[in-house]
Amino acid sequence: MKATVPLVTGAALLAVGAFAVRAQEAEPQTVEITAKRLNEARNGILPETGSTVYRINQEDIEDLPLGAATPANALLLQVPGIAQDSFGQLHIRGDHANLQYRINGVIVPEAITGFGQSLDTRYFSSVNILTGALPAQYGYRTAGIVDIHTKSGALDPGGTLSVLGGSYNTINPSGQYGGTSGRFDYYVTGQYLQDSLGIENPTAAANAIHDDTNQWKGFAYASYLLNETARVSFFMGSSLAHFQIPNNPGQAPNFSLYGGPTPTPFDSADLDDNQREILHYGALAFQGQTDTNLDYQVALFSRYTQTSFTPDPTGGDLIFHGVSSKVYRSNYATGLQGDGAYRLNPTNTLRSGFFLSLENAITGNTSQVFPTDPSGNQLPGAGPITIVDNNSKVGGLYGIYLQDEWRPTQQLTINVGLRLDHVNAYVTGGQVSPRIGMVYEFTPLASVHAGYARYFTPPPTELVASKDIALFANTTNAPAVTTNDPVQPERDNYFDVGATTSPIPGWTVGLDGYYKQAQNLLDEGQFGQALVFSPFNYAQGRVYGVELTNAYRRGPLSAYLNIAWSLAQGEQINSAQFNFGQDELDYIATHWIHLDHDQTWTASGGVSYLWAGTTFTANALFGSGLRSTGSNGVPNGDHVPAYTTVNLGVFRPFDLGGGSGPITGRVALVNLFDKSYLIRDGTGVGVGAPQFGMRRAIYLEIGKVFK
Question: pLDDT tens, 461-485?
């Protein structure tokens, strides 16, 4: 039975720092129903016509072996076409990062080190991943949209306390609670994590050397119903993390700390490099409906991100690399976003909106290096010297869009839009981008979609850092190449076509193909010891692939299987050339090469079954291997070996009676067969140290649910 909510007469005023409300207190049921309706209205502002959409709901999250304790990057790996990389990075459809994260419809600019390890799956109510030819309201980052809908007190009342522990000295307590009070809706969650495998191991050993991590994460959401058609909402989140940089034993020293005739002895297992990461983000949004035809949301958002890398204090990095850099990067971004949808008539819905963001990026680099002779050799008797290279930049990003969703028939939907973007940061540029997408439903259970999108992707300001190469002349950190053209925005033509059908109840099958032609294709590489990536361009790029999806849910059984094939290539590096060797630049100038994150085959699958109150679950990931530079010397001309990992889990609630909520227990076995596999082997364009995937681990989680 569908509930009908009568309109409540009221008035609301939203101003800077204050709002006034004239309304009676609402019943909890009314708050819940209104929250659902406003959530649906907010989601309706952002169409998906013509794009490819993958949905992960609360049941899907709980059916994973680790449930809501699954890291956010591992959760997204269940989506077809997403390849895993080191440091929590994700690559979707051949792009390096280029993901846009939205929380409750509000864009949250990405952190310096990405969101892979900064978000907490526990506060996700559902996640939609959009890719392909996106409608006009999606700009800025376009490889994929991670659209997160958070839990709320109205729809997820009560709370839990839990503790997860297990292999690698893991201790992970967490808690969450939500509820309502009159028209006020609130939800909070927090967790602490410590373990001894914070970053991927550079060796194949089960345990890494010098790899402890401590992480704090928190999130809060609140909303207030101004009346039956409007609300103010607020969310904020924080992540504080400290990582030891794991060591690779047995490395040979290359330099003398005091300019002696032989390198200074140093055991590479004793290096003490560390990295600290801070992320704060939040938004204040006003959402409403002026009548039955207009929905809108206006949001003020902010994000602060900071990363600091401290090298070995005894000079170990100098001995091995000839440079020891203390790296500091921060970026503060704030902006305003508005989106609206107006139902012009039964067949046309107009949508329009704007986005503006200002960023202040600060880079600090204090390096110790050795002076060299004209041949590039360390000067005899010369100790290290210090070079300071600091800079800052204020940048802006602006965009507006207008589009019309037209339904000429009940089966056919066409979305036509135009987007205008402009960036003014380390480079200045803009573009008018047409978009068109269509969906044709043969039946409610079978449809096809197709789309074209022109994309404009500016380089991430939080990662771009101007560098004064001349400061390092005649030192052990002098680049072999001194060309340093600025990183440019990427411009794409993107085509996507696909079909979905449901051959039997509960089973959905999808097939999707895509092609991207790129100018100034953006890529990123790790150049230095800090776990911070720097962007660069290929003059030309091409990316194409095919994805097959299967999902089944009926009764106690759910299962999925996704298979993706892709190819991503670039030609001629035309920015930040000083990061590369001349041989690499010369070869890539006249040859198409695979991008370092190109993985030909990617697959994910899982199954879950509820039996006698106990959920048994398993999932698996397959990758044919990211690129490497093989024995033939062709940049990214080879790939690391293929791998498959399998994970198992068991979950059961125990109802102790009394109506206070059950005790829950979960056991998860990760990498069941203790597979030792390479993610990176330390070779390839812009690739740092080797990284191996996590070996077998077992975890136990005990929780208490409060109603």
Answer: 888 877 788 999 999 999 999 999 9
Count of alpha carbons within 13 angstroms of residue 651, beta-carbon side: 23
Residues forming a β-bridge with 628: 638
C-alpha distances (whole Å) from 570 to each of 97, 140, 295 are: 16, 21, 42
Domains contained in the chain, CATH given: 11-706 (2.40.170.20)
Distances (CA, A) of 467 to 111, 258, 546: 21, 27, 39
The residue type of 381 is G
Cβ neighbors of 394 (< 8 A, separation 6 or more) are 358, 359, 360, 361
Please name which of 138, 109, 128 lies closest in space to residue 453, comparing C-alpha atoms. 138
In DSSP notation, 459-507 reads: PPTTT-----GGGGTTBTT--S----PPP--EEEEEEEEEEEEEEETTE
DSSP string, 638-684: EEPPPEEEEEEEEEEEE--STTS--EEEEEEEESTT----EEE-S-S
Q: What is the pLDDT of residue 7?
A: 29
Q: Tokens 């003020």 belong to which residue?
A: 300
* pLDDT < 50: residue spans in the chain: 1-26, 28
d(CA 142, CA 144): 5
